Request: fold
Amino acid sequence: MSLQMKQRILLAVLLLTGFVLGRLVVRAFMNLLLGGTMFGGNFL
Reply:
């Protein structure tokens, strides 16, 4: 595998990870503001 191909794969993985973490942070922030539980469970 060439170096350019490895760089493209690494960039794709980093972009995907960043997108998922960014969505999770936004969801956590909105849950904090709205007073909901993070993943829908009632754990009390």
Observations:
- The CA atoms of residues 27 and 38 lie 8 Å apart.
